[in-house]
Amino acid sequence: MDKILPRNYSGSKYGLHFRFVNEDDAEFIYKLRSDKIISKYIHDIEGGVEQQREWIRSYKEREGQGKEYYFIFFKDDIAVGLFRLYSFNKTTFTSGSWVMVPDSPLDAVVAVPLIGREIAFYDLGMTYEDNYDACHVDNKKVIKFNLSFGCKIYKHFQDVKGEYVAMSLTKEDFEKNRPQLLKLIGCK
Length: 188
Description:
single chain, alpha+beta, Aminopeptidase, eight-stranded mixed beta sheet, globular
């Protein structure tokens, strides 16, 4: 990857404000990721708030090197979700750590991964998303949602939490589906 986002990278789009996570976000992240209902299909989180702060400190080094970007999103100045871009190669990336507060409005639920992928494809010049970390097969809502973005399932595999599907997304497929996603959130 040739481009690196500046340390103060942030923005506002589709009714949301976003920026990189920082240590002050540790409690919000820990609360969201340790919620039994929300975290049913995501990787387990270890430790408490202080361990989350330590993880953020080490993440900030990777952020500065352009290896990983972890965003927090706000609607009306209230934190509503998280989204991460990582595992960059020359033109490929992985997205994940997409977690939203319970009862988030539909426009925010759609806008968070939309913005994340726009950053990857447009700001960072990526052309292919490879979500090899995958999605649990029982997480049908997220699978259906990712398919609406243009993602395609390319592999099934077993993990400690069960069966998963790995998905991929080309920039072209993203751009084909982007207008209907914008329409869904009341844009264009």
